[in-house]
Amino acid sequence: MSQPLVLNTVADLRSRLALWRQARQTVALVPTMGALHAGHVSLAKAARGRADRCIVSIFVNPTQFSANEDFGSYPRSFAADCERLGIGGVDAVFAPDAAQMYPAGFCTAISLEGPAKAGLEDRFRPTHFSGVATVVTKLLIQTMPDLAIFGEKDFQQLAVIRRVVRDLDLPVEIPGGPTLREADGLAMSSRNVYLSADERRTAPLLHRVLNEVASQIQGGTRADEALASGRTVIEGGGFVLDYLELRDADTLGTVQAGRPGRLLVAAKLGRTRLIDNIAVSSGGGDWT
Ligand code: AMP
Fold first, then answer.
1. Which residue, of 24, 56, 84, 188, has the greatest Cβ tally within 10 A?
2. Is 40 noted as a catalytic residue in this protein?
């Protein structure tokens, strides 16, 4: 499989898109920050299956990191990423630099409420979703794809983007892709490389707790009881827990009778912050 075309400017991206559009080809976009793993590649494969052309964007977006976060040290592996994407049949990589995305004088941002203010990620990363929504909206306007695929791994991000697209009438479909996991259940993440060998052995506990809490709730245990015992297990395992919550799968607000739920967790293990989530149903009855 050949290497994907690398496009560094919006002008080059749009020229290439114009050729594909002239040939009446459909286009899918997969936005990423690089340091690609099998989870990202699974989104690219899903994109290939749903559109004639697939573009993966690679941009480590400074505005979604706060000052105390890992923007400077975020893993970067552009050559290896391109190789992986070539094998995955991706047509083009859009890799703008910061000056391309944020020209001098840049002063516009998307302001969010709703799922972006659910009291989950926003409590710990208050400016994160505005940075994500702004850069993703730019990528969508630059590319004008038929669809853009996001991972359920970042479930709150997916809910925020879907809301932005609906609210701003952006003519694009936003399918979600399932979370790819390591054999022991740990959700794949570019940040897993930060884990020490000991932490790596501990990390799958988060997914085990999510499964355990979901099966307790589905088996009829009161959600607050199941969540409380899940929190105790996570903290007992050596994590500093940010949250473990049950929420409505669309709004991320309080879960309502008859609506699908989502269990969401964020916790720090040493210097690494891990997030994960799974679907949970009320087993046909009301949430208790
Ligand atoms: P990132 O590069 O971490 O910003 O992620 C780019 C896209 O890949 C986002 O839509 C993520 O939700 C998605 N993604 C990250 N990890 C996984 C995973 N383990 N499985 C599936 N998709 C993922």
1. 56
2. yes
